[in-house]
Amino acid sequence: MRFMDTTLSDWDHAYNLLVRWKVALTKLLIPFFIENKYGKLVYVESVSVKQPVENLVLSNSMRMPVIGFVKTLSQETAGKNICMNIMAPGYHDTPAVQRVFRKKAEVNGISFEEAKQSLVSHIPAGNMGDPADFASLAAWLLSPLSNYVNGQTITLDGGATKASF
User: Fold this and answer.
1) Which of 5, 10, 90, 160 gets the most CB atoms within 10 Å of its CB?
2) Does residue 86 belong to any structural domain of this protein?
């Protein structure tokens, strides 16, 4: 939703839904990883951490604290053989993205297909991402092949994000 459509209760709910449980789960896992001298975590956020998504003020805002805590914690645990990274997907063919298209259609008074096409047309790859491509990156980040990748936010968006970092 847009900022002016939110309530403070919406903000509290978004914090619990997008931030708090990740911090709580991480606090439970890190001691186990330290004890075992190994651990991998991958947080799934959104491309909105690099470029805000229209009509998603709560998601755009509440995903940034996760970036901050993961980047800080990755530095604190780097010498303990623990790696944590963030995936920042753009538009992949998933039910969550279908909801974005429906909302865009509703807000702009256009059809679902028009809303979808208006967003897909801005993806240089020319299509939405395949969930299998997303899964393959997650599998790699959780594997020993990525042991030197730590504290990174990796965008999967077909080249749509204009930001350099």
Assistant:
1) 90
2) yes
The residue range of the domain holding 90 is: 3-156
- Cα–Cα dist 109/106, whole Å: 5
CB 84 within 8 A of CB 150: yes
Residue 129 CA to residue 127 CA, distance in Å, equals: 7
Q: Give the position of tokens 């001298």.
A: 37
Does residue 95 form part of some domain?
A: yes
Q: For residue range 112-121, what is the model confidence (pLDDT) as tens digits?
A: 999 999 989 9
Would 162 be classed as within a structural domain?
Answer: no
Q: How many domains does the chain have?
A: 1
CB atoms within 10 A of CB 19: 17
Please give the pLDDT value at position 100: 84
| Spatial distance between the Cα atoms of 43 and 18, rounded to a whole number of angstroms | 11
User: What's the pTM value of the predicted model, to 2 decimals?
Assistant: 0.88
**Cα–Cα distances in angstroms (integers) from residue 64 to residues 19, 32, 37, 55, 77, in the given order:** 9, 26, 28, 16, 20
